[in-house]
Amino acid sequence: MKKLFLLACVVFQATSLVHAQITDTTIQVIYTAGQANTTVAVASTTERKKFFSFQRLKLIETFDQQFKSSEPAFYSATNPDSGKTAYQVQAAIGYTFIDLPKLSVSALYEWHQNTALNKPQNVRQYGISVERIDGDPENFFLSIRGNIKWSNDLKDDKKSFILTGLVSPYFKPEKAFWKAVSFDDTHPPAAISPKFANWLQYSHNITAGIDAVNFYDAAIEEAQGTIVMGHLEYEIHAYPFSGFLYDSKLKAERLLDVYYVGLTRYEIDNKTDDKREWRPLQRYGVAVTVRPGPKEKKREIKFAVERVYGEDVLKGLKDQKYWQVGLKVKI
Amino acid sequence: MKLSISLEEQDLVTLKEFLAAQPVVQSSTILARVASAIADVLETDTLIDAKVTALLSRLTSIPADIIKNEHSLQFHLGMGPKRINALAGPLTLIAQSIKPNADTISISEAAQLTTVQSCIDLIKTKLL
After folding, report:
1. Which of A95, A108, A143, A224 is deepest in the core (most CB within 10 A)?
2. Chain A residues touching B67 at Cβ < 8 A
């Protein structure tokens, strides 16, 4: 055990040295005089990049949906239609260990638990998420996300292997407001339409893909088998009073967010006893965002009120509807 | 004798203007080299500014003369989170066009960008 610890220390130190990198942007003028080889140089201070970088650490809601992959983790008290109140955690923590201009690979751990529902949810997952940006960012590109996860449903005593492949298209934005339909972008940009942006901005996005779940271990034998589903997801966000809030002391973008997210999965093949053609999951709500850190960092805390209805077979969420009020945290 | 001065960008501009106004700089080899080194740094900064502004203009279809360094990528230029992540590739190309062996910019680094100035600063860290 001691040898293992020493080996870990050596690896940690060696990796730290490999990652040594100049990061300080202060410009330093060094002026040396009084010697035969007088030099004048422009240099910069250096700072060793740590082995563990917070930039590569993500705390989000889930890696399974494109929209949720940029959304904060969710902790809340829940008040379902049945009346009882309890807690829920919808969180995914990931560390990007391959981080390139067009490719990132992250190890992930997800925790999805909701004790308040009529049909409670309690799932733990771990695996790998791969994100690739394909195409020309100046014209048209695709954001492609693939996940491989092992999932343990502690509520239903089911273990599964999950494969997900998702694609979102991104078109070049057009100058004219009426043509501004490009996905993901904030419409209209305040630089072009400041008056309109003062009152309202919006964004929307679309994602398509395939989800496959193989329940390889289940207490009930009939529950074992594979489900393959088509995945179609649309989200739209409105940011009221966007410009007024940005110009306020808060200096925050997308501070007030009124949103709708509709996800539907269509069964292509189902070898389990739980068969249905469509598996929709929809949510709408209002969120207020606060950024506690410096403006350059994208850490944020959201207070959200959200209505959820539908099911999520990838996370052991059974078909139901409920309100949730809670805090979302993203780092 | 060794003189070491640590300067921010704005101070560097002030120093350049100050040196340009001093007749003694012309007659001193060392001071002339200091002035020349400062000019080189500022020239690179101007080049990065221009390249980043041109890139963002192409990406967002917003005319370059409207884009300011303090503009927010999301609020002013209308870029969404995924489009900001996708900046990693084009910003790497800008860094490597100035210094061929410059480090690449990763998706995680690009995800932290919030303003035009933050894009410029990120490129500068890759040129050091």
Report:
1. A143
2. 191
pLDDT in tens, A274-283: 888 999 999 9
How many residues in total does chain B contain? Answer: 128
A68 min Cα distance to partner chain B (Å): 12
* Confidence check: pLDDT of B107 > 60: yes
In tens, the pLDDT along A140-190 reads: 899 999 999 999 998 888 999 999 999 999 888 775 454 556 888 888 899
Helix axes B29-60, B88-98, angle to 10 degrees: 150
pTM, two decimals, is: 0.77
Residues in chain B with CB shorter than 8 Å from the CB of A242 are 75
- Select from B61, B107, B118 the Cβ nearest to the Cβ of A131: B107
Contact A59, A93 (CB under 8 A): yes
Q: Could you give the angle at the alpha carbon of A141 between the alpha carbons of A140 and A143, nearest 5°?
A: 155
Residue B39 Cα, gap to closest chain A Cα (Å) = 11
A22 vs A28: CA distance, rounded Å: 13
Distance of alpha carbon A223 from alpha carbon A18, whole angstroms? 49
Neighbours of A273 (CB within 10 A): 12
Are B75 and A190 inside 8 Å of each other by CB? yes
Contact B102, B127 (CB under 8 A): yes
